[in-house]
Amino acid sequence: MAGAASHRRILLASLVGTSVEFYDFYIYATAASLVFGPLFFPAGDPSAQLLAAYASLAVAFFARPVGAWAFGHYGDRIGRKSTLVASLLLMGGSTLAIAFLPTYAQAGYLAPALLCALRFGQGFGLGGEWGGAALLAVENAPPGKRGRYGMVPQLGAPVGFIAANGLFLVLGLVMTPAQFLAWGWRIPFVLSIVLVGLGLWVRLKITETPAFARVLEEGPPPQVPMGELLRDHWRAALGGTLGAVACFAVYYLATAFTLGYAVTRLGIDRETVLAMQLGAILFMAAGIVLSGIWADRSSPQHVLKWGCVGAVVAGFVLAPGLGSGSLPLMFASLAFALFVMGFVYGPLGAWLPGLFPARVRYTGVSLAFNMAGIIGGGLTPVAAEALTRRGGLPLVGGYLATMSLLSLAALLAMRKPMRA
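That's the MFS transporter sequence above. Prediction below.
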């Protein structure tokens, strides 16, 4: 068993890595809500431009299962550490390159094509990132602390969000709208290289996990992990996918969709909405921490079930809160939704690895998490925007409740023991 110093280093590596990855992912989501529509897509209806920007956001979600397959394959064959380093480099490189893209006015249709290609690269890298970070934490966890260790990489989500949106908030305060649209939005993408360097420095110092070491001691690793997973563990993969859908639906409605809706439909200035979201995201961090403690006292699956119940309630709270136009009510509904998000997201780091044996765990966890991202997150901003145009915010709330009930049904149907 690793010592206390080693455990701290391992948890720091999982936290820093996911913080970097989520920072990269969130600056794209924020930029898509604010500037990518007019910059990278043909002039026309602003709502149509926003819809196109949200569609480019979805590209990464379809890339993530491909990345899950590729990185899962090597993570289960050659180890967690080197695979995590590769995923970080790929996503960081894609993010940095976005900073130097030409706009539609400069390059025509080449601009959105390049944007979508780099967005695919971001998603491909993230496809292998989260699963590896979760395994790094959970496979090194002492007995009785899987929930708390598993929630540490989940904290990378609020940390990355605060770094990304905090930077956009500062830029909005010190720049004119014209300056921000012309070049200011590129700064967060350039600065990502600093965070990637920090993540690499931490990750190169860690060792392989004990669970993977045992796999090698017991015999050769699987030749085709995905084949073994789909042949022997497809039920766990399907249940894990559906059980994780709710967290993506809650998050992308409370962040990307809310930002775009409040700025473009309600006319609230960007800095006000970003500040409100930065305050609300702290409730998500609190929910993640509490979920990890609760998961060790009961089970991750038990916490996830109650989190899904809360997410259904959030679906009926978010729409009237956002539609009220009142900043206090908007903040309260966002804070509640993101607090609930902590309970449908925090336990995933301990729950999903427990569904699969160690020899195909990287592949199984990555596939389930990223397929859930497509169902619950990839199309959610697009669907929410379309539902808003058709029937208003109540339909958006119903959409969130439906996604949450889907996860709850999967969790109630599963009876899978935790694996070492």
